[in-house]
């Protein structure tokens, strides 16, 4: 029996991370049955699962089968939806129907998709707002599946439904979906034409439409059009912000335009546009030397000065622009009781640079002598919920290797394996310094701890 369990197919990451144990067991059984090509057994499993599951468990499993990132078993989404729709607790939902239709389009099951569209239109025929919302959801879901024909088909249906409406709010929502959908499928020129049409109807574009246009032109490497769209956004009354800037930086990075990225980072600083963790991610993911270096933490440079020595000119200029930002201060909390650094949301390159900046910041503050030594120091990495292998955090592995190589006395917190923590004898000494301790007191404690460290084994297991 244990041998049979070992042979069961592994489920996709998304299913493993968010599903309940019941849902996970069901999909594992379903994968085994499907592999045996037994339609009757599969149908029995589906029916038994729906009958024995709560509403939340059943709908969560269905949402996984409908997800654009889940191809495994997705062919069973329609049969499962059909059985769920017969359950006593089920209430019809046009958003869920749109998700099913978009997946059927992706699978080239156009007859089934058309039947569901006709059924929905019949239900919502005299409810204009809900019908338009359904088409908007359909466009958005087709966009996530990267289905160009699906977006254009839904776009046409929505425009037709919109032609009979006099509601400005409804038109605003509809144009937002249509323009966003066109941009996702790489048709920014058509989206820009639609924005002009939108203005002609007295509907003012929002920041979303401008951002969609900017990002679409940027992804395609049409940087002149991207910059022109930024200018149009500013003329339209929307200031350049962090979200839009990150879209521009991400686009420049995809096309390896590092010098243009340096210029853009400088513009952000001049305009007072704050950097964010996403700014770090977008920029550092484009620095090939840094991204190559973090793949081998055992030989990583352990200071910003050493890092600068291995970078080429363009990457060094990019790094200089990032280092002076306020991102480190925003992810660091310094109190008497605790010094915490939170690395959540950071990619490997960002976590690496922030750690280097953090070490420099600690040295600077302690040497200045104007900071109280915290009782406890904590670095929060997370436990790898979104990693390729569940529970394996690349950021945690990177930080661990840096700690070991720098002979740092931090260890993994047994109460939270996603954190590194320094406490015990070392932090007890810091605690005894008290709030009124001077820098001389701290240096004396440091000298004592230096001897103690030789006898301390840091447990990273």
TrEMBL record:
Residues annotated as signal peptide: none
Organism superkingdom: Eukaryota
Keywords: Repeat
Coiled coil: none
SUPFAM superfamilies noted in UniProt: SMR domain-like
Cited InterPro entries: PPR_rpt, Smr_dom, Smr_dom_sf, TPR-like_helical_dom_sf
Family matches, as SMART domains: SMR (SM00463)
Domain Smr: 341-425
Any single Pfam family the record assigns to this protein: PPR
PPR repeat feature ranges: 171-205
Classification via PANTHER family: OS02G0120000 PROTEIN (PTHR47447:SF15), OS03G0856100 PROTEIN (PTHR47447)
Recorded family membership: Belongs to the PPR family. P subfamily.
Protein name: Smr domain-containing protein
Species the sequence originates in: Escallonia herrerae
Lineage: Eukaryota, Viridiplantae, Streptophyta, Embryophyta, Tracheophyta
